[in-house]
Design goal:
4-stranded mixed beta sheet, SBP, Extracellular solute-binding protein, Bact_solute-bd_prot1
Length: about 500
C-alpha cells in the first residue's frame, strides 16, 4: 500500500481526473490554549523548530510583513519559525507529488483532494494528534465536516472549508452593464440577454469566458433545476448522481434532460459568439484583465483580489456578482471539504505541526492569517464581518491552512444579498446530509479505466460542455471512445457505494 511504484497508475489517474477540482472560541493573542496546545509553562520548554509548509499560488501582497507578525507571536508560544514555499498553481499538483514521493522534508502540505496520497500511505493519521493538541481544530469545525472527511474511519488531513455547499457565481462587469443601460441582473435569462447586448453594443469585449467546464456543465444544469439534485462524479467525466437516491448514472444510458438542454444552449452561445472562441483554454483570470463581460468563480460575491486586479487593469471598471443560489433552497450537502492541510509521514515535527494548525484556529491568529494586520490591512465591521482597507489590501490564503466557518469573516463591502448567501452557506443546519456524505471512492480497481476516461474527457467531453462541439455529434464520438471505460467505473463506483450504504445500516 505504501510503495509508490505499485500506486503509480492510481496516483496519475486520480491526479488527472481531479486536477480541475481544481469551516470557536480562541485564546488570547499569542497564548496557547490550556487544552489545544501546551500550557505557557510547557511551551517555554519547547525547542525552536522551523516548519516547512507547501502552499499553492503566489505570496499575497504584504505577505512578508504578515509572516513577520505571525512569527513574533509564535516566538513566545510555540517557538516556531515558518519556511513557507509557494508553488504556482500550474505546477502545484506535479511538484506536490514529486515532494511527497521523494520524501522531501515538508511538515505541512496543502492538498485539494488527498485521497490518492492517503492511499499511498504518504499522510500521517491525525486523530490522536488532534485529540491531544487540536481543541481549536475541533471546536471550529462542525461534527458533520470532521466525520465526512475521514477515510476508512480516520482523519488524515484537517478539512479546510467555510462552505457546506460548493458555491459558484457569475461575476459581471457592472460598469459595462450600467453603460449599456441594462438593469441589475435578476435571472439567468436576463444574464443571457445581457451577454447578447454586450456582443451587439460592445464588440471589443468577449461577452462570456467561463472558468472551464466545471461551472457550465452539471453545476449549471443543477442550479437551473435545483430539485433535480444533479451532481458530477469524477470531475464531469459523464458520470453523475441525481435525486439523492444512492445511484450513479452515466450520460449514455441515462441522459438527464437538464444536461442535454444545457449542452444545446451552450453550443448556441458558442456559435453566436457569446462564449469565447478559446473557451477550452481561457479561464476566469481573463476577467481581471478586462477581457470579459461575464465569467464564473467558485465563490459568492467578488473577491478582493479580483476587484483590485480589475480596477488596476481597467481604471473605472467595477464588478458585481449574480448567483443562481437562494437561501430559501432546500439543498443537501456531503460536507466534503474542498481544501485540506496534511502532515506528511516523513515530517520530523508532527506534533508541532498540529499545534501550529491549532494555533491558527484561534480567533486573533486566524484574523491575522486571513486578513492581515488589523488597522493597516483591515478593520472590524461587526460580528463575522470585516472591511478591507483599500490602500493596503491583504488577500490572505486561509483556504490553504486554516479555513473554517466559525472564525472566517465576510467582506462587509459586498452587496447585502451576497453577505446573506455567505451566512446561509456557512451554517450546516441549513442543509440535509447527502446520502454520499462520508463515502470515499477507491479508484484502484479501475485505475487504468479512470486514466483513459480522464484523457477522453478532456479531448471529447469538455468541448461539448463548453459549447464548442455540437452535442449530438460530439456525444456520439465521445461514446465510441469512452463508454466501455465509463461503464466499468460506474459499476465499480456503485459497488463501493452500495457496500458503504449497507455498512451504515448495521
Amino acid at each position: 500500500m505504501k510503495k509508490l511504484s505499485s500506486k503509480g497508475t492510481l496516483l496519475l489517474a486520480v491526479s488527472l481526473i481531479l486536477a480541475g477540482t481544481l469551516a470557536g472560541c480562541g485564546s488570547k493573542q499569542g497564548e496557547p490554549s490550556e487544552t489545544g496546545t501546551p500550557a505557557a509553562s510547557a511551551a517555554a520548554k519547547l525547542n525552536p523548530v522551523t516548519l516547512k509548509i507547501m502552499f499553492p499560488g503566489d505570496p499575497p501582497a504584504n505577505w512578508s510583513e504578515v509572516k513577520g507578525e505571525l512569527e513574533t507571536r509564535l516566538s513566545s508560544s510555540l517557538h516556531v519559525k515558518l519556511n513557507v514555499v509557494f508553488i504556482p498553481w500550474a505546477d502545484v499538483l506535479q511538484k506536490r507529488q514529486v515532494a511527497l514521493s521523494s520524501a522531501e522534508d515538508y511538515d505541512l502540505i496543502w492538498d485539494n483532494n488527498p485521497v490518492q496520497n492517503i492511499a499511498a500511505g504518504l499522510y500521517e493519521p491525525l486523530d490522536a494528534l488532534i485529540e491531544k493538541y487540536g481543541a481549536e481544530i475541533k471546536s471550529t469545525r462542525s461534527p458533520q465536516l470532521l466525520e465526512a472527511n475521514k477515510v476508512n474511519g480516520k482523519l488524515y488531513a484537517v478539512p479546510l472549508e467555510v462552505n457546506f455547499i460548493r458555491p459558484w457565481t457569475f461575476v459581471i462587469r457592472k460598469d459595462i452593464r450600467e453603460k449599456l443601460g441594462v438593469a441589475p441582473i435578476k435571472s439567468y435569462d436576463e444574464l443571457i440577454k445581457f451577454m447578447y447586448t454586450v456582443k451587439e453594443k460592445a464588440p471589443e469585449i468577449t461577452p462570456f469566458i467561463p472558468n472551464g467546464s466545471e461551472h457550465v456543465g452539471v453545476r449549471l444544469a443543477s442550479m437551473l433545476d435545483p430539485k433535480a439534485n444533479l451532481a458530477p462524479v469524477l470531475n464531469y467525466a459523464g458520470l453523475y448522481t441525481k435525486g439523492n437516491d444512492g445511484k450513479v448514472y452515466n450520460i449514455f444510458d441515462d441522459m438527464d434532460p437538464n444536461l442535454m438542454k444545457n449542452f444545446e444552449q451552450n453550443h448556441k452561445l458558442y456559435k453566436d459568439g457569446i462564449i469565447a472562441k478559446d473557451a477550452l483554454l481561457l479561464k476566469n483570470a481573463e476577467f481581471a484583465k478586462g477581457k470579459a463581460a461575464v465569467t464564473t468563480f467558485f465563490d459568492f460575491g467578488v473577491s478582493l483580489s479580483t476587484r483590485t486586479a480589475l480596477e488596476k487593469s481597467v481604471p473605472g471598471a467595477a464588478a458585481e456578482a449574480f448567483s443562481l443560489y437562494d437561501p430559501n433552497m432546500k439543498l443537501s450537502s456531503t460536507f466534503k471539504a474542498g481544501n485540506y492541510i496534511a502532515v506528511p509521514v516523513v515530517s520530523k515535527n508532527k506534533e508541532r505541526a498540529i499545534q501550529f494548525v491549532n494555533w491558527l484556529n484561534q480567533k486573533e491568529n486566524y484574523d491575522l492569517l486571513a486578513y492581515g494586520i488589523k488597522g493597516k490591512n483591515w478593520e472590524d465591521a461587526g460580528e463575522g464581518l470585516y472591511k478591507p482597507i483599500k490602500e493596503s489590501p491583504y488577500a490572505g490564503i486561509p483556504f490553504a491552512w486554516g479555513w473554517n466557518s466559525k472564525l472566517d469573516r465576510i467582506d462587509a463591502s459586498m452587496a447585502e444579498d451576497v453577505i446573506k448567501l455567505n451566512k446561509w452557506q456557512r451554517d450546516p443546519n441549513n442543509f440535509t446530509t447527502d446520502i454520499l456524505s462520508g463515502f470515499t471512492f477507491d479508484p484502484s480497481p479501475v485505475s487504468n479505466e479512470v486514466a483513459q476516461l480522464s484523457n477522453t474527457n478532456k479531448e471529447l467531453f469538455e468541448p461539448i460542455i463548453l459549447g464548442v462541439q455540437e452535442p449530438k455529434e460530439g456525444l456520439a464520438r465521445f461514446k465510441e471512445k469512452a463508454y466501455a471505460n465509463m461503464k466499468k467505473i460506474q459499476v465499480e463506483y456503485q459497488k463501493q457505494l452500495d457496500a458503504y450504504l449497507a455498512s451504515k445500516k448495521k
